[in-house]
Design brief:
Helix content: 25-40%
Oligomer: single chain
Radius of gyration: 17 Å
Number of strands: 7
Strand order of the largest sheet: 1-7-6-5-4-3-2
């Protein structure tokens, strides 16, 4: 099942990129997703190639009922964003994947952070697949809602961090200032 989601931010893409590839941002994202355990590894391979691997554990009760019967009481989600080296163009591109330990789904796609006016546009395009052929359509449909909710939560976090006045209200700007 294909999906595409984007958000426009009133902040230049280099600042948004720096934020998205920071440990404090990933910690804040995990907190907003209400996970019970979180671990993040960020690797700078040089030449601007940065990989962010975030492992989050959450109760299986948060997954669609159709999938819940197929998984353990807790799920470990491994989200990987591999940002390519700058190519001389005006934005940044990368690949992302989401693996759910013990669940029959996987997500792969691309992420784009491009200039837009005085700010930037963040876009996630991807495909959710299941390994259960008999119920493929139903499982992909049920799981896609959770994937979209996670992307929308990330967009909301970025909007909160970079909204005018956020630097003075503490909570939203905390991840930028750490």
């Amino acid at each position: 099942m294909f999906f595409e989601r984007h958000t426009d931010l009133e902040t230049a893409f280099p600042e948004v990129f720096r934020q998205m590839t920071s440990r404090s941002y990933q910690d804040e994202k995990a907190q907003r997703l209400e996970v019970v355990e979180h671990r993040c590894d960020i690797t700078d391979a040089g030449s601007g190639r940065i990989t962010v691997v975030s492992r989050r554990t959450s109760p299986a009760g948060s997954v669609p009922e159709l999938i819940r019967a197929m998984v353990k009481p807790t799920l470990t989600v491994t989200e990987t964003e591999s940002w390519h080296a700058p190519d001389g163009g005006p934005g940044r591109q990368g690949d992302f994947s989401v693996q759910v330990s013990g669940a029959p789904i996987a997500v792969k796609g691309t992420v784009h952070l491009d200039p837009a006016g005085t700010g930037c546009r963040l876009t996630f395009e991807g495909e959710l697949r299941t390994t259960v052929p008999l119920f493929r359509s139903a499982i992909e449909s049920a799981a896609s809602g959770r994937v979209i909710d996670t992307i929308e939560a990330e967009f909301a976090l970025l909007q909160d961090i970079f909204r005018p006045g956020a630097a003075t209200d503490g909570a939203a700007r905390r991840s930028v200032d750490q």
